[in-house]
Give the backbone structure.
Amino acid sequence: MTNEERTQIHDAMVRLADGRRDAFVVVFDGLWPHILRFVTRALPGQPDAEDAAQQTLLKVFARITDFDTSRDGVSWAFGIAGYEVMTARRRAQRRKEVPADTLHDRLGEEPTPEDAVIARDLHDALAETLGALTDADRAVLIEAQHQYGVSPAAWRKRRQRALERLRAIWRRRYA
């Protein structure tokens, strides 16, 4: 961004803060490509990048009356963008998402010996855990509600109790 562009955007933000809506297009057209580029670089490979850029501009326009016109408007907007990047990262972390650029494309690859051992251990653990359940619990977990022959509420309660027992057995095994 050139100094001239920065000055134009700042002046338009000052006009917008004063209530002159004709400056909206100038602010949007000036900020959008730079905010989008910044957010996309900060959140590589994440689908939330464009959402974060949109949220940034929404907040800029919603809070334009709070904008201190004696300060640089572009820096203020990028401060909001930085906050949106942190929010998107926290949200992805809570969802336990891994950015796409850190994933390995393993389509068509044969499983490694470690993968095979892990899969076998998990299969054995699941079989042992399911084997520790009663026949009724296994039936509730495996069969659909309409096959079980009880009311939907009774089936949901039985399924909930069976899952609780399954979790308890799993925790005892792997606590």
Q: What stands out?
A: Residues 115 and 121 are 10 Å apart (CA to CA). The chain is about 70% helix and 0% strand. The mean pLDDT is 79. The longest helix spans residues 152-174.
